[in-house]
Amino acid sequence: MQENLQGNMDEFLPLRDVVFNTLRKEILTGELKPGERLMELHLANRLGVSRTPIREAIRKLELEGLVIMIPRKGAEVAQITEKSLKDTLEVRRALDALCVELACDRISQGELTALSDACDAFEKATVTRDPQKIAQADVALHDIIVEATGNSRLVQLVNNLSEQMYRYRFEYIKEESSHEQLMKEHRIIYESIRNKDKETAAKTARLHIDNQENSIMKQIRLEREKNLTKRA
Question: What is the pTM of this model?
Answer without folding.
Answer: 0.80
